[in-house]
Design goal:
It is a single chain. The radius of gyration is 19 Å and the shape is globular. By secondary structure, the protein is mainly alpha-helical. The protein has ten helices and no strands. It has two domains: 60 residues, Arc Repressor Mutant, subunit A, CATH 1.10.10; 137 residues, Tetracycline Repressor, domain 2 (Orthogonal Bundle). The N and C termini lie far apart (60 Å).
């Protein structure tokens, strides 16, 4: 029985990988369930077994990413601890930790195909991502800046922090191609982390000055 479960989990992972690649390349309407199953080398019934249909599978790609993000964050975050109950210094240190861990996660768990798919989704007016981890990060930023979590400055500062993390991957024409590389090396990751840290320290200083 255990062997069968492992086999099924491997099939699920292959389906997600194949579907992500095809949706990124051909779009939702241009991709068929049959194509996905052929690419993943699984039976057609596996889609119904795990998701029900193509729309649910498409949504399942996003949900799988959020689940991985949430599971990963448990190693360094207690999402039940309200940032308002923490000191500004504690939140500042936590924000630096979150940013460094985000770099590690983004450059090891998110494929180029998934980035393309997410960028396409962002253009849809009805696309909304409910990420407990990103919501928590915004709450930490709000505490550092001593503002409400829905304040315009907090929302945009959080966005700018995330852009420091992901822009090299999202803009390969300005990063990997000039570097003559297909992927980022350890030295690149170190530079990215240092750059993110510089920006966050500037935000922390801004919050201290306003306080």
């Amino acid at each position: 029985m255990v062997i069968q479960v492992n086999k099924d989990e491997n099939s699920k992972a292959r389906i997600l990988e194949a579907a992500t690649a095809l949706f990124a390349r051909k779009g939702f309407d241009g991709t068929s369930i049959r194509e996905i199953c052929k690419e993943a080398n699984v039976n057609l019934c596996m889609i119904s077994y795990y998701w029900g249909g193509k729309q649910e599978l498409y949504q399942g790609i996003i949900e799988d990413l959020l689940e991985k993000q949430l599971e990963y964050s448990k190693n360094f975050l207690d999402l039940n601890k309200d940032p308002k109950s923490m000191s500004v210094d504690e939140c500042a240190d936590l924000l630096l930790t979150i940013s460094e861990k985000f770099v590690d996660f983004f450059y090891t768990n998110i494929s180029s195909n998934l980035i393309v798919l997410l960028l396409k989704e962002q253009q849809k007016p009805d696309f909304i991502v409910k990420s407990p981890v990103l919501d928590y990060m915004r709450a930490v930023v709000a505490r550092v800046l001593n503002k409400d979590v829905n304040d315009r400055l907090v929302i945009l500062k959080t966005l700018f922090m995330l852009s420091q993390v992901n822009s090299p991957r999202i803009l390969p024409a300005f990063s990997l191609r000039p570097l003559g590389q297909e992927d980022f090396c350890e030295e690149d990751i170190k530079i990215i982390k240092e750059n993110v840290k510089l920006y966050i320290n500037a935000v922390i200083k801004e919050g201290a000055n306003d306080g």
